[in-house]
Amino acid sequence: MITVDYAKVDEILDSYRYDPSKVIAIMQDIQKIYRYLPQEALAYTAKKLKISEARIFGVATFYENFSLESKGKYVIKVCAGTACHVRKSAKVLEAIFQETGLSRENPTSEDGLFTIEIVSCLGACGLAPTMMVNDTTHSSMTPEKAVALIRALREEAEHEA
Questions:
Q1: What share of the chain in percent tops pLDDT 70?
Q2: Across the chain, what does the average pLDDT equal?
Q3: How far apart are CA 47 and CA 41, in angstroms?
Q4: Residue whose C-alpha is closest to residue 92's, from 73, 119, 70, 69
Q5: How many Cβ atoms sit within 10 Å of the Cβ of residue 125?
Q6: What is the DSSP pairing of strand 114-119 with strand 74-79?
């Protein structure tokens, strides 16, 4: 469980002058810090902006970009759109699940390293099959390339620790 740093939330709110019309931008900045929107941070933000918790949670659940669940350091989005599907993205996804031990039902690793999301389109059909790791697109993926990428990310995380 993540502990919310209310001083950081206050910094974000202050940067937007506690303007409730900037709630989406505020929530985006909070999500950048935690990789999701902790309930405590949203409740605190609602109170500080003088808006209802229902309104702020409504925004959080309406926009697909927001997550109320903790995500891993590396969010891996695997495209399941038509172009990627035809070019065997399901095999790439299967290899990722096997390498990480994750599944559709359990998409985030207990160590907080990986979250796997299946998306309907990444907007890179000409590069299919594609996947993204955080903000980086990886094209022409194969199961072997996906496994090598997962292993490289693990190694990167170990060196950072």
A1: 99
A2: 95
A3: 10
A4: 119
A5: 16
A6: parallel
Tell me the per-residue pLDDT of 77-125, one tens digit each, with 9 for 90 and over.
999 999 999 999 999 999 999 999 999 999 999 999 999 999 999 999 9
- The whole-angstrom separation of Cα 65 and Cα 157 is 24
Tell me the pTM. Answer: 0.79
Residue 150, pLDDT > 70, answer: yes
Beta strands at 131-133 and 74-79: parallel, antiparallel or unpaired: antiparallel
Distances (CA, A) of 67 to 3, 23, 101, 116: 17, 15, 22, 13
Q: Which residue, chain included where needed, has tokens 């309930």?
A: 39
CA dihedral sign, ordered 82, 86, 91, 92: negative
Distance CA 91, CA 104 (A): 14
